[in-house]
Amino acid sequence: MGKDSKLTEAQVEFYSDKLCFLWEQYMKFLGVGIIASGATLGLLANAATQRLVTQEISLVFSLAIGLAGIGGACFLGCRWMCQIVMERQIYADPKVAKEYFALVNTSEPSALKYESRVEFYYWLNNRVKFVAAGCLISSWICAIWAVIYVVVTAA
């Protein structure tokens, strides 16, 4: 612990555990988003290959597939950006970290190579996650509407 620090060792340990827990939960959220987007794409593509899509719903169905794809890509982007931001948080002093990687003759991680981008990734990640969730939910709404339309018109 630094001499200027007002936190006790117990507080640092407490907050470290909480931050680790929150990081794990956020990664689970992104993982669920990636899996849900992939599953949605798989189901919609399967319905399309089974010729269950009629001419009347093809536009909405295509929109659902496109939105699920955009949502999945955004979730993957969030996952990647989070990794870069977290790496940057771990390497507290970039100068010392760069010296270490030079000393052990290892290439620097992206968080140190592109240090100027880390703030932008942080800013972008805070917005893209909402785009990802919105696209996935919109995809589900379009797909559910298409199913309801087919069921109602078939009756």
How would you describe this protein?
The chain has 155 residues and is an all-alpha fold. It has one domain. Helix content is 83%, strand content 0%. The chain contains 5 helices and no strands. Helix 1 packs across helix 5 and helix 2 runs antiparallel to helix 5. It is elongated and about 75 Å long. It starts with 8 loop residues before the first helix and ends with a helix. Keywords: Membrane, Transmembrane, Transmembrane helix.
Proportion of β residues?
under 5%
Secondary structure: number of strands: 0
Question: What's the shape?
Answer: elongated
- The average pLDDT score comes to 87
Order of helices and strands: HHHHH
Topology overview:
Blueprint: H1 9-49, H2 58-90, H3 94-103, H4 110-113, H5 115-154
Helix pairs in contact: 1-2, 1-5, 2-5
Compose a concise summary of this entry:
The chain has 155 residues and is mainly alpha-helical. Helix content is 83%, strand content 0%.
